[in-house]
Each structure stands twice: as C-alpha cells, then as structure tokens.
Design goal:
The chain has helices at about 15-30, 55-65, 70-75, 90-95, 100-105, 115-130, 150-155, 160-175, 190-200, 205-215, 220, 225-250, 265-275, and strands at about 5-10, 35, 50-55, 75-80, 85, 140-145, 180-185, 250-255. It has about 280 residues and is an alpha/beta fold. The longest helix is centred in the last third of the chain and has 22 residues, at about 225-250.
C-alpha cells in the first residue's frame, strides 16, 4: 500500500465502524498489516480519548489529594513539555471500581481544555504520531478523530467559527500529507430520516448526553436550538461544512452518499479506491 493512513468520517450512525471494519479485513486479506483505532479507544496514537491534561500546579494538587494512589496515578501519566496526560479511564478500571480519582480527572479531559490549549496539544499529538511511528508495512485506520472530534470541539462546544477550525485542520493535513492519506466520508441527503433511526436505537443515556451537549453549548446555545429538531439542524450544518472543508483538502478522498444502505455497492466503491493505492 502506498498509503499509511485511512480516515473514516461521518455523522453518528453513518456507518463509520462498519466501513472501517470492512476496510481492515479487506486490506488484511491483501497482505497488509492493519491497526484500526475506533472511536473511544483510550490507546489512540493521535487522538486523546478519556485522557486528562493537567498543568504542573494541577498535577501537584492531584498527588497531594490522593497520596496513597500516587503510584497508580504515575502509572497512567505521561509528562510532555508543560503538561501531564493521564489516562483516567484505564486508571479508574484498575482502581477497583473506586471512581473518585477518575471522576476528578474527567473534568480535566483534553476536550474540556480551552480552545487555544486544545489546538496545541492536539497538533503536538498528531506530530508525535507522525515522528515516532515506524509505519513499515502497517496501514492505520482512524475513525472520526480528524473531522468529527475537532468539529465538535471548535463548533459544537465553542462555536469558534469554521475558519479557525479550517486553519487547524490544514495544519494537521500538512503533517499527515507524507502518509498519502485516504479520507472516506459517509454522508446522507436526508439526515432527519437517517439520524432518527440511529437516535431511537441508542440508549436513553446516550440520547440525553448527545442532545444536552449539542443544544447547551456553543453553536446550539447561540442558535437557540432545542430537541431532536435542533440536532437535525446542527447535523445538517455539520455535513454541509464538512463537505466544503473536504473539497478544499489536498488529499485523496472518497465520498459515499449512503442513504440507501446498499453496502454491496459502497464496498465496491471502496474496493476500487483501495486498488488505486496498491
């Protein structure tokens, strides 16, 4: 393969996991070594998932507050420049079900940082992935960390404006350009129809969290969006902006409009695209 990175993007329920898994199996059958990192993987090499980011003062206060758990905290901590990154989800699992430390650390999640700090640590982590990875014959597949997660942070959380997001993505794009990345984007014309099914299938906890996050922060709050109709309006805006951003990106891309859920046809499109990368 003359690409080392395949990025799968699309709104929730658009088929990212199905597509990523299909590509992984297809490439493995062709002899490639594949590493797939799906949404929420705490071991992701380029996107912080369930990871806290503390400065020196905050880290010292944490150790003082939990003196008996210092060894456990240090086990899941990486110091990088002026920051301490702690995988609080993994720490919580080892802590015997005692979630006090993990709960405290969740408030320092990378995605809760101010936007300027997030931009720095996000860029630095992508740079670390590029510089420190021996790619060899390995193809990496990433779900939603290139578009969805930054879009959520910049727009849904802070409503910072698409130009600022675009600038951030262009910097990341320059970093990954030597990997000859392929971006696969799954989208639907009728988001109301496609997302309604997804929304109803998810558990009530997810529905409540997803709705509250997008309606009570940034874009949704500023636009006075509410309920399911507000989510649809946000997701339609997100799809349109992401398609525009993708169109301007200097990388190989495959856009799949999958309203009909005809996966045999879509897999054929994917197979043809992957054949050009061999």
């Amino acid at each position: 393969m003359n690409t080392k990175l395949i990025i799968i993007e699309g709104i929730p329920g658009s088929g990212k996991t199905t597509t990523a898994t299909y590509i992984k199996h297809h490439l493995e059958e062709s002899g490639s070594h594949v590493k797939l990192y799906q949404e929420g993987n705490p071991g992701h090499p380029a996107d912080y998932e369930f990871t806290s980011c503390l400065n020196h003062t905050q880290f010292r206060e944490l150790l003082t507050k939990y003196p008996k758990e210092q060894d456990l905290i240090m086990k899941y901590t990486k110091e990088k420049e002026d920051w301490y990154f702690i995988q609080y989800h993994e720490l919580g699992k080892e802590d015997g079900g005692n979630s006090l430390i993990a709960d405290d650390l969740a408030s320092y999640d990378v995605y809760e940082l101010n936007l300027e700090t997030y931009e720095k640590v996000s860029y630095n982590y992508w740079e670390e992935f590029i510089n420190d990875t021996n790619f060899g014959n390995t193809v990496y597949i990433f779900e939603c960390c290139f578009l969805q997660n930054p879009f959520t942070k910049f727009i849904a959380k802070h409503n910072a404006g698409v130009p600022r997001l675009e600038h951030h993505l262009s910097k990341i794009g320059s970093l990954i350009n030597p990997l000859n990345p392929l971006l696969v984007y799954l989208y639907q014309d009728d988001i109301r129809k496609s997302f309604k099914q997804v929304f109803e299938e998810r558990d009530p906890g997810w529905r409540d969290f997803f709705t509250d996050y997008h309606m009570k922060n940034g874009y949704g709050k500023d636009k006075l969006l509410t309920g399911f109709n507000g989510l649809v309006e946000y997701l339609e805006m997100r799809r349109d902006e992401e398609l525009r951003l993708i169109d301007s990106m200097d990388m190989r891309k495959l856009l799949i409009k999958n309203d009909e859920k005809d996966w045999e046809e879509y897999n054929g499109l994917i197979n043809r695209e992957l054949s050009h990368l061999e």
